[in-house]
Design goal:
Layout lengths: L6 H17 L4 H10 L20 H11 L1
Length: 69
């Protein structure tokens, strides 16, 4: 779980988020896939697992804000 102090798991989460951040904004179809299949399903602040929101890079964070505004 993010924020639980389990460093190996946290490192995996960070690696996945870094890969998504790198790929986002490089290809329209990839962007749509990431936005619809990942960002859209992220928890709301205060919900279980919402610690992941603080780990998003600038591009994914911007997409999340766009979706939720």
């Amino acid at each position: 779980m993010v924020g639980s102090g389990q460093e190996p798991n946290l490192a995996r989460v960070r690696n996945v988020l870094a890969a998504l951040e790198r790929e986002y904004d490089t290809d329209y179809e990839v962007d749509e896939l990431i936005a619809a299949s990942f960002v859209e399903d992220l928890p709301e602040r205060g919900e279980p697992g919402s610690g992941i929101l603080g780990l998003l890079g600038p591009k994914l964070g911007k997409e999340l804000n766009r979706q939720r505004s």
